[in-house]
């Protein structure tokens, strides 16, 4: 808005932040607001996985990569802080189809046996998608090469929707 008059009324509608269009920092403030809302959304999205007979909940924003290995799915889960993190592996005897509907829009199936969290993509190469699996550690993940352009389109669309 251009007016401060609506500030109090706006909070009755679940307002996250109040922005005034005429302020010089409007663009920076709106980008910060979008990132904040995304953080809140991601913190509330969990995936329940049954591991060794016990159901465990993981924040979807911490799931970096899911791959299939024989009759198991291997989940690479982020551990640590932003400055120093790595992935731990969790194996569960389930199928992609059993979890795919529960995954947030940040996940992309890039191959018959690989689903990645697009927040961890570093780059696309000719045959792989390079993802971060640690603070400064990267991994080449197989993708379906014939679908590379479609995968890139989904990735850029996802990244664009964050801004």
What this model shows, in words?
The structure is a single chain. The longest helix is centred in the N-terminal third of the chain and has 18 residues. A hairpin with a 5-residue loop joins β9 and β10. It contains four helices and ten strands; from the N terminus they run ααβββββαβββββα. By secondary structure, the protein is an alpha+beta fold. 17% of the residues are buried. It has a five-stranded antiparallel β-sheet, with helices on one face.
Map the helices and strands:
Blueprint: H1 7-11, H2 26-43, E1 46-51, E2 54-59, E3 63-69, E4 72-81, E5 84-92, H3 96-99, E6 107-111, E7 114-117, E8 121-124, E9 128-132, E10 138-142, H4 148-162
Number of helices: 4
Low-confidence stretches: none
How much helicity do the residues have? 25-40%
What would the average pLDDT be, to the nearest integer? 85
State the shape: globular
Profile the largest sheet.
5 strands, antiparallel
Give the amount of beta strand, in percent.
35-45%
Please provide the count of β strands: 10
Distance between the termini: 19 Å
């Amino acid at each position: 808005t251009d007016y401060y008059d609506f500030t109090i009324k706006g909070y009755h509608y679940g307002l996250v932040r109040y922005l005034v269009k005429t302020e010089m920092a409007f663009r920076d403030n709106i980008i910060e607001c979008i990132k904040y809302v995304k953080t809140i959304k991601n913190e509330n999205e969990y995936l329940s996985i049954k591991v060794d007979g016990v159901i465990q909940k993981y924040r979807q924003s911490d799931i970096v990569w899911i791959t299939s290995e024989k009759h198991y799915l291997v989940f690479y889960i982020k551990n640590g802080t932003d400055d120093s993190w790595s992935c731990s592996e969790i194996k569960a005897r389930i199928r992609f189809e059993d979890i795919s509907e529960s995954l947030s829009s940040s996940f992309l199936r890039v191959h018959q046996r690989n689903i990645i969290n697009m927040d961890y993509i570093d780059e696309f190469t000719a045959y792989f998608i390079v993802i971060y699996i640690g603070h400064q550690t990267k991994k080449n993940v197989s993708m379906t090469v014939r679908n590379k352009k479609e995968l890139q389109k989904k990735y850029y669309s996802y990244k664009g929707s964050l801004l």
